[in-house]
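Q: What would this chain look like folded?
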Amino acid sequence: MKGLFRNMDSLKAMILVCVVASLGLGIWLWMLHQDFDRVQGSWRRAQRDVVEIHSLLKQIQPLYQAKDEQGAGQGIDPGVYFETQLINYGRFKKQHFVMKAIDERSVLSGKNKAVDRVQRIDFKPRNKQRLYFPRSNIFRALYNCEKNSKRWKLRELHLVAKEAKERKGRKDQGYPDELSDEWAIDKFVFASREPRAK
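A: My prediction, written as structure tokens:
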């Protein structure tokens, strides 16, 4: 081997380098071709998946519509719906509030008869101690109660600032210098109106 390199002139050396480089380049091109085949396969699968996703979107839309109407239809307990919204989004606890029975009344809406359904939610003090909540929790709960149902809308909201609640009945009544972000909730009242079935 030593003799081979000793007798090699510059031309032979260049030819050997070219052969080795060509071999390396051929291996690199083969690996690149394998990667390209994999990319092409992934692209073809992605195109098929896009078509399938578009077809599934049409099937998913009715599910979202059904979810929006959950809690407002006949045969579904609205109390369960509102309880879920208050706990999941408002971070209230179940013992913080009481669901009153649905108040259902027949009303005349224009020339048509309709049914008003009213869901009242009372917030009760714990151990005779008033509970206070930040506005962000309250508004987030109210927003989702309306957003996730097309039929139920907020009709009444009774809030009292902590400072106003604690100053009530005292001789030094007046406006507090500053309000903290703590609010006592007396009640939420939600209502829905539906045409009366003939």
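The longest helix spans residues 10-68.
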